[in-house]
Amino acid sequence: MSKISNLVLFMMLFSFMNFISLTSEAKPGKTQQPKYIFLFIGDGMGQNQSYATNLFLNPTSKEGQSLVYNQFPVQNFMTTYSANDYITCSSASITAISTGHKTNNGRLLKSPNTDSTYFSIAEWAHAEGFNIGIVSSVGINHATPAGFYGHQNSRNMYYEIALELPQSGFEYFGGGGLIDSKGKKGDQADAYAIAQNKGYQWINSIEGFNQLKYGNSNLLVTNPILEAEAEFPWVIDSIAGNLSLAQFTSKGIEILGDGKGFFMMVEGGKIDWACHSNDGASMLYEVIAFNKAVNEAYQFYLQHPDETLIIVTADHETGGLALGIEKNLKPELMQYQNISLQKFQKKVEMWVADSLHPRSFEEVMQSVQFHFGLGNAQKGLALSNEEMALFKAAYRNDFVNHTSRKSDADYLDHEGANGLAQTAVDMLNHKAGFSWASHDHTATPVPLYVIGAGSENFTGKMDNSMYFSKFQNLMKRKK
Amino acid sequence: MSKISNLVLFMMLFSFMNFISLTSEAKPGKTQQPKYIFLFIGDGMGQNQSYATNLFLNPTSKEGQSLVYNQFPVQNFMTTYSANDYITCSSASITAISTGHKTNNGRLLKSPNTDSTYFSIAEWAHAEGFNIGIVSSVGINHATPAGFYGHQNSRNMYYEIALELPQSGFEYFGGGGLIDSKGKKGDQADAYAIAQNKGYQWINSIEGFNQLKYGNSNLLVTNPILEAEAEFPWVIDSIAGNLSLAQFTSKGIEILGDGKGFFMMVEGGKIDWACHSNDGASMLYEVIAFNKAVNEAYQFYLQHPDETLIIVTADHETGGLALGIEKNLKPELMQYQNISLQKFQKKVEMWVADSLHPRSFEEVMQSVQFHFGLGNAQKGLALSNEEMALFKAAYRNDFVNHTSRKSDADYLDHEGANGLAQTAVDMLNHKAGFSWASHDHTATPVPLYVIGAGSENFTGKMDNSMYFSKFQNLMKRKK
User: Fold this and answer.
1) pTM of the model
2) Less crowded by CB within 10 Å, the N or C end of chain A?
């Protein structure tokens, strides 16, 4: 589309949004200007991911009332398509959310075909005088958090994005670390050091974290324990020495919460990762951790109800999750999984590598039962002969043929044959009535849940490109 | 400027103009009492069924703006669980919608374990002086329409429900006929005759339909062409001599639309049936017909914006539809199917029965290509060797082994092996990126779309049991 038509579109959108703000101003005493804005993004969190977690948390009640945002007074859904596909990627969707512009999949705050740069709501708000916090459970230069300060033709330019981080001047980056902090080949100047040279404090210990308080600024605070791509460990694996997304959120509130007002984005990034590998139980625990982070904002809202706006939404759905296979839905069965697919896969790989102590099929199945409940009839998880045959084939893929998935990347790219780990996860999901259509994103509209000052602006037809001007209208200050 | 961007501009302008007309309605702050209430129920229509239809209608644009209710100013989603299951059936959900009470699956306006009777919003509104219209594209004593006048321990007591119909005194029943009108065994007094004896006019011709006008009352108006269970033919099959759901809706408006005010329920009943057999294309055409019925109400709303309330929702999702399989989504491929699964199945059965003229695999595949596009590389529907092998197996199931699905009931109960019809439908759906998790209902929350007087009452957390009191509050008249 030409620049002119883009301009016309923008003007129409602008007049459309002005119209909304006019009509909402016409409501006497209705729209209040929020001073504290929280944007929570459950990456890959469709309505079913969220609703399944409700049911899992409270399986004896059909109500599923346990997630705090489930009670928010405005609930809606929105479309997420990108400029070039019905199915968006995270960087195209976050570009739409944070700048109001649709772009092509893979691009980050850049136009679809030219290199025009878009600016994010966080950059705009920072210039307006708001403090800014960016929090994620995955790498802080991964697509979603990067979508508030990074501007690159490809979301995969992690190093270049890392170099943009200190240029933002944002007050608080918290959670995951820097992916490719020394470049793709590890031969570049350390991006952590560059950030420090530019005036950022880098904290990566619990002690340092605990000492942070109101007024500290230009912070890059990373979880002391990070996995290969600078992300948090899986919540389901309960790794000690770890800080939670909720802790990074409440610390952000403490640091930013002065009289200036703030905009804080918090991403539950591994909801998406769990859905990519169709690991339902790990997804549930990631949503639970995400909800706890929302709850920190909600507690703040209760103290400042007239000045706080909280939005909980997603960038897209991942996995095409459906709840119910031929009338069967038993979310409570998910409680018997106590390990992430990824960690169990690593366990299997260690067994395979330990050539001096070959594990028998029966030994391996004991571990499957311990970690997934599968084979335990009392738990409602007896295995049929056909199901045992699937496990035998998986054992051969792992131990004999060595054709099964090996690395984290294999999971994200869904390469390789199903080994024991994927077989166990798939089978438990099937028995629980969790059906997955895909290992990738889907086009299904995603939910939004809104509470607080200005929430009445989010009731109508929503698309991910509509946040930017709504935020601007709500946050614009008379000068 | 390209055609596509012109289209986008037009659609934005359209939505902008719509927005102006939307905002010229009820002043916020004080709820207006609607005089004309429309409740549209897309049976089995989850968010993906609806969104897929948007995309199918307008495949060159990612916007998917084509369904009229997609522009309604209040959009939300709601939970649908029944008293005894996460996954509801139509009768339990319609009981919740029409009476505010959760009950067990299978029951109709009766309490879960005792025989306490619930009364519907239509019965209450009728007593308050509203005219009542009940319209469906399936049997008018099928669960959803029956949920406004029938009270039975089982939704399957069709004959008993049919006998309740004339007792309701409702002004207008339109659309499908009476299932089991002479009882399950065909040995009871004709329920049509009983209705006539009780003062109902039964009209089942286009001439009779056309003569109906404002002021006619106690009407049972059935489509001249009905299928085995008293339902409309499939929209995709374009059967002549047939009246549409939209025609029954506009006729209802004409008949009921006097000064008293009315409550009209309109069900798109075969959306659910198509989803039960995972027949995506047939589903799309049923949603399109449903949307045309909504449009009749919307045109009425435009003339009476301060007095009309329209709600478009669903009783549950069916099929666990996901949009996108491993990044692939091509809704436009669905245009190549031009026959319902059910009708194609009947065609195959006729071929099988015609023993004097055995059809070869190649002959049969020509018909598959004609009706589904499959095998046509120009349409993007080339068949691989593996896919041809599936068709060969299906041919054997139909013509050699005689093990494939035979009857309508087989589809609803998903009995039998996949024959050619199901294989063709499944393959087209897969190529279009439509994934189905189930042949039955799922627990996924369903959308609602609301416009008009009182619409601001539907923004918060919604469950199917919350309509009844909202309707009562909106419709209660000071006396």
Assistant:
1) 0.92
2) C
Domains of chain A (ranges, CATH numbers)? 6-323+439-475 (3.40.720.10), 332-432 (no CATH)
Return the ∠ at Cα B200 (arms to B199 and B206), rounded to 5°. 145
Q: B116 vs chain A: nearest CA distance in angstroms?
A: 22
Q: What is the pLDDT of residues A107-122, one digit of tens each?
A: 999 999 888 999 999 9
Inform me whether the pLDDT recorded for A19 exceeds 70: no
Q: Which amino acid is at B324?
A: G
* Residue B94: alpha-carbon gap to chain centroid: 13
Which residue among A13, A73, A445 sits closest to B459, beta carbon to beta carbon?
A73
* CA contacts within 13 A on the Cβ side of A335: 11
Token pair for B285 = 């055409």
Cβ neighbors of A205 (< 8 A, separation 6 or more) are A224
How many other CB atoms sit within 10 Å of the CB of residue A297?
30
Q: Of the candidates B2, B48, B73, which has its C-beta nearest A1's C-beta?
A: B2
- Which has the closest alpha carbon to B323: B289, B284, B288, B293? B284
The DSSP-derived string for A339-372 is: S-HHHHHHHHHHHHH-TTSPPPHHHHHHHHHHHH
Residue B412 has a pLDDT of: 56
B9–A12 CB contact, under 8 Å: yes
Q: Which residue of A49, A60, A61, A86 to mutate against B (max B Cβ within 10 Å)?
A: A86
Rg value, chain B, Cα: 23
pLDDT band with cut points at 50, 70 and 90 for residue A29: very low
Backbone angles phi, psi at B233, to 5 degrees: -65, 160
What's the average model confidence in pLDDT over A293-308?
97
Nearest to B423 by CA among B402, B392, B444: B392
* Chain A / chain B CB contacts < 8 angstroms: 209
Chain B positions touching A87 (Cβ under 8 A) are 324, 327, 329
Task: Taking residues B456-479, report their average pLDDT.
Answer: 92
Number of C-alpha atoms within 13 angstroms, CB side, residue B422? 25
The model's pLDDT over A195-224, given as tens digits with 9 standing for 90+, comes to 999 999 999 999 999 999 998 899 999 999
Using DSSP's 3-state secondary structure scheme, residue A336 falls into helix
Cβ-contact A168, A198 below 8 angstroms: no
**Cβ–Cβ gap B447/A51 under 8 Å:** no
- B152-193 tens-digit pLDDT: 999 999 999 999 999 999 999 999 999 999 999 999 999 999
Q: Do A16 and B20 touch (CB under 8 A)?
A: no
Residue B183, CA distances (Å) to B109, B136, B153, B343 in order: 21, 21, 16, 27
Cα–Cα distance for residue pair A16/A21, rounded to 1 Å: 9
Please tell me the distance from the alpha carbon of residue B311 to that of residue B97, in angstroms, as a whole number.
12
Measured between alpha carbons, how far is B197 from B440 in angstroms, rounded to an integer?
Answer: 39
